[in-house]
Design a protein that fits this description.
With 150 residues, the chain is an alpha/beta fold. The protein has five helices and nine strands; from the N terminus they run βββααβαβαββββα. It has one domain: Glutaredoxin. It is globular and about 40 Å long.
Length: 150
């Protein structure tokens, strides 16, 4: 069943780039941006991550934590995070548990080809674990504005 604003966010546990287990309950009482992206070190994913990084102070000022999720490994996340000095955690989802929980795996169409993959999607979750917004048409260069408003 497709998630929508007003739904309770699915409970998750996943390891970050350092192997530390993070859970949805760790963010109880905080607002959370949970963004799914296809692959570390690819042009569009890098632009998106750097846009969030460059606006990280604004997110923190209004009480948001940020977590990125892809199906890349811890090592890949470590390199990506260090290379671009990302101040937020990246969650490993090599087994696609989070991808399936949040229903962000599906058919994609790029360069004239259809294939299955992770659909770039962001979930904004409030202090009580309720999804307040789902952004499926992510504009990587302006993603922070999509989340925070202009």
């Amino acid at each position: 069943m497709k998630l929508k604003p007003g739904d309770k966010a699915p409970y998750f546990e996943a390891r970050n780039q350092d192997g530390r287990l993070l859970k949805l309950s760790d963010f109880q009482g905080k607002k959370l941006v949970l963004y799914f992206y296809p692959k570390d070190n690819t042009p569009t994913c890098t632009v998106e991550a750097c846009n969030l990084r460059d606006n990280y102070t604004k997110f923190r000022q209004v009480g948001y934590e940020i977590l990125g999720v892809s199906t890349d490994s811890e090592k890949s996340h470590q390199r990506f995070r260090e290379k671009f000095k990302l101040p937020f955690d990246l969650l490993e989802d090599t087994g696609q548990q989070l991808v399936n929980l949040f229903d962000v795996w599906g058919e994609k169409f790029t360069f004239g080809k259809h294939y299955m993959g992770l659909k770039r999607t962001t979930f904004v979750i409030d202090e009580n674990g309720i999804i307040t917004d789902i952004i499926e048409d992510v504009k990587s260069k302006n993603h922070s504005e999509q989340i925070l408003g202009a």
